[in-house]
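Appendix B. Extra example for self-study. Work through it before the problem class; the solution is given directly after the inputs so you can check yourself.
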Amino acid sequence: MARLFREIMSSCLALEQPLRVAYLGPEGTFSQAAALKHFGQAVISKPMAAIDEVFREVVAGAVNFGVVPVENSTEGAVNHTLDSFLEHDIVICGEVELRIHHHLLVGETTKTDRITRIYSHAQSLAQCRKWLDAHYPSVERVAVSSNADAAKRVKSEWNSAAIAGDMAAQLYGLSKIAEKIEDRPDNSTRFLIIGNQEVPPTGDDKTSIIVSMRNKPGALHELLMPFHSNGIDLTRIETRPSRSGKWTYVFFIDCIGHYQEPLIKDVLEKIGREAVALKVLGSYPKAVL
Amino acid sequence: MARLFREIMSSCLALEQPLRVAYLGPEGTFSQAAALKHFGQAVISKPMAAIDEVFREVVAGAVNFGVVPVENSTEGAVNHTLDSFLEHDIVICGEVELRIHHHLLVGETTKTDRITRIYSHAQSLAQCRKWLDAHYPSVERVAVSSNADAAKRVKSEWNSAAIAGDMAAQLYGLSKIAEKIEDRPDNSTRFLIIGNQEVPPTGDDKTSIIVSMRNKPGALHELLMPFHSNGIDLTRIETRPSRSGKWTYVFFIDCIGHYQEPLIKDVLEKIGREAVALKVLGSYPKAVL
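Solution. Structure tokens for the complete assembly:
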């Protein structure tokens, strides 16, 4: 990753262009915090209205990289992101993990005992479900496109609150009426860095693939066998509808290793021979916490 | 299932009590349509505000059965339902499959060129995402607790529309301004019938289990091996966060066969010896379309 960055950074510098990064916006989202953690301040960051738009922006070459959430430790996979990989040809270049703390936020005009609506992203509402059930059981919960969008709304909307993080609270000038309301104290989200260029091995990498198998008994077992017999560790498997037939699925698999390593290359070739379709999404350095 | 029904029906008849069924409400949801398809009209059906409440109602014995959505062919797993199985001790007694057609609905007071908000359940919004992107790209989409709830709202709210099915349209007296707007023509949802009593074998059954494995290389392969070596077909595997540690998962697995059959019993015993935890959710007749 370091090498790839240096290459892209130096070509940007040669052209006197700063690195451009798209993320799931608006400003103040956890995706922006993940972009900051990964790229630092010295980039032009571009908030997009939806996950799919981050993908399109990267495919079109309008930005060098995109940052999208892929998995939360409490609520599981971010399906929009997984499904976007089915629709776009794109490379995973890295991953970032963020500890996620949610707060209940209100604007100046709202009295805490008058809250009638709580806005947030559906994932955030789910990550705080037990806390909400205990403290605001009868208040309407409204899912919006991101938690920063929720924060933006309640700045001017009376008697409503938002669930969002520190960045959004500061950015929209909201007060915290309850802090760290996530149900699980280790609540974390993994983000992916997506781009158009493959990343060379660093010696501590992960590989992500999408596979669809023939709809026959033992297909999943057959898919996993080459990993197992070569001692390759799977870190994750997710199932999603294939969108090519009713009750047919594709598998999203993450394994340890880089696809340029002979062992991984060999396993992927074996799987490719049995699979209906195999797409290598990329190999990239494992996230450092 | 037939035998179990007869038993419960006859005990209800003996006590002069009709069968009581809870479903994800309000009235007019696809869950109610699934309950009708499975049980017919001769039951007392009880709409609940959330999936979790359907589970609680069944566990408490306030109803004989509950009906909850578990999987859509376009949008995938219904996570609330899967996660509820982690929290409640309950038996799956059956499954129902419904073809899902969505319509764009408005009340009398709304002009079709003045729509500023479209309400529906997040799953339904996702099932119609491409249609909405093409026809109402800049109209706000608001996710509410069910599509029947969306229909109920727009009955009285100006300039708003709902995405819901035929039952909701009729029940709340709404007009269809666009029909069958789901992105995939084979869009279908599977519902589970949950209860407190196990269902005897019918000869054409499925078994659902939840398994958590030790977090070690090859764990998933080890889990699938006994199914494979005994020729048992898996129809589905889903991964969810285990909620007992960060980045640890449980697997929801459906296989062909009844857990009282010696072969399945044997496989489950083998898995149970290797697993951290194994819970048999139930064996039940396969859905008839």
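Self-check: The first helix of chain B runs from residue 2 to 14. If your reasoning did not lead you there, revisit section 3.
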